[in-house]
Amino acid sequence: MKLNKELFKKLNILYVENDGKIKESFSDTLNKLFNKVFLCSDGLDALDKFTQLNDTSEKIDVILSEYSISSLNGLKLLFKIRDINKNVPFIFITQETDVDLLLNSLRYDVTDYFFKPINENEILKKIEEACIARQYEDEILNYQNEIEDYFELINKVAILYIFDTNKKMIYVNDFFIELSKYDKDDILGQDYRSFFHYEMPKPIIKEQSLILENAKKWQGKIKYLTSIDSLFYTNCRIIPVFDENKEIKKYVSINFLTTKEENEKREFKKRVHFDLQETKRIYTVAQRKIDELTNILSSCTDYDEFKESLKKEQKETQEYFFKLEELEKKVKKVKDKYDLLTVGINKKISQISLMINEMKSVEEKTNKKIITVTDDIKAKDFLITRIEKEIGIKGSKISDLEDVLEYRKTQIKKKKA
User: What is the Cα–Cα distance from 42 to 47, expressed in whole angstroms?
Assistant: First the structure.
């Protein structure tokens, strides 16, 4: 039988046995496999050892105990251990076949039990299975804690809401409630797009719906309207979430509020664009006037007077041209800063996307490990069923013995008579 020796080398075991020969023999095997082996001969010593090491780097990972030990028998030791740690694997070795003992041990979540004489390989295999199951349980708990941490982090820095495949809101965080000025009950159950500003371009909303229905991510800018008719802008990323059958279950919308500086830059860019258009318009008008004056000069006798007027118009046109060049430089600087800011925002959004993908991966791993734990529970149910069958068989044997005893009593009475 092949054992996971790499796993055993990371584990510490508490072995409780009052039979010196058995303990010496089996402890040799355990010392070769486990990181550390702690040996005890009675229950109180074992309880003290477990309590002493519980919060240290040498804490006990699995307990293997004889039932018939002094000071504190194996069942009472199990009770005490479960008060301290409800999950550590605990395996009984016993010569007892008392049904009440076995049922009580199962009630206190004994991992398994073996009857003497022991089979070392079977015990080691059970220890391996129990420790792997315990590791899965610990990992599931850690993953759940990590998911909660990620979710809490996103809740603190982003506007977050979730909607179903019918586009109805099913979750919204406090940040969104605070900004939108709506009550939570007024948000849940509503179409998430009903909170968009009515000036949001219809083609963008249509494109967003099409992309999401095709199970793809959507990213863009959203303009929202609050209940008091104020506005706020966000950089939005909507991510589909799938179930175990790869069908879309819901959508998560993560929004980052655009900064005051970015809004000011947006307004400045609009003003610069307007000024640029106005300057071009003025330049065009001036050029048209120059052309008109040139035509007039060609037919005018007072040439010097018109020539002076032309120079004046040319000078004004030159000034407009210089203003146009300055504005174009300013536009270029603003564009460069805007592009730099956009790169930073996209990087942050990519990081959040990676976090969401990790959350999805964690959720899939958690589901797999829950299945493993469920299988372990089924195995325990099978063990209980086996015990019940053994009880039935032994009850039948007792009934047969009672019949034999009654028969012999009848025979003895007949002989005496």
Answer: 9
Q: Which amino acid is at 262?
A: E
Structure tokens at 300: 């005018």
Q: Which residues are paired to 172 by β-bridges?
A: 161
Exposed (0-12), middle (13-18) or buried (19+): which is 74, by Cβ within 10 Å? buried
Angle at 109 between CA 62 and CA 37, to 5 degrees: 10
Q: Is 26 exposed, middle or buried (0-12, 13-18, 19+ CB in 10 A)?
A: buried
Cβ proximity of 164 and 250 under 8 Å: yes
CA atoms within 13 A on the CB side of 392: 6
Are the CB atoms for 39 and 23 separated by under 8 Å? yes
Contact 125, 119 (CB under 8 A): no
CA dist., res. 187 & res. 174, Å (int): 12
How many Å apart are CA 4 and CA 34, to the nearest integer?
A: 11
Question: CA distances (Å), 31 to each of 165, 207, 361, in order?
Answer: 57, 66, 38
- Residue labelled with tokens 């303009």: 223
Q: What is the pairing mode between strands 36-40 and 12-16?
A: parallel
CB atoms closer than 10 angstroms to residue 179: 16
> Block means of pLDDT (10 residues each) for the chain, length 417 residues?
84 90 89 92 92 90 88 87 89 78 78 83 88 83 74 77 94 91 94 93 93 93 92 92 88 84 55 68 74 66 64 76 80 78 74 78 79 78 79 81 81 79
76-to-94, 108, 291, 337 alpha-carbon distances in Å: 14, 10, 110, 73
Burial of 188 (0-12, 13-18, 19+ CB in 10 A): middle
Specify the residue for token string 């664009």.
273
Residue reference for tokens 């005890």: 40
CA Rg value for the chain:
41
DSSP bridge pairs for 66: 93
What is the C-alpha separation between 351 and 357, in angstroms, rounded? 10
Kindly state the DSSP code that residue 305 receives in the 8-state scheme: H
The number of beta carbons lying within 10 Å of the beta carbon of residue 30 is 21
The pair of structure tokens assigned to 166 is 């019918």
Report DSSP letters for 375-402, one per residue. Answer: HHHHHHHHHHHHHHHHHHHHHHHHHHHH
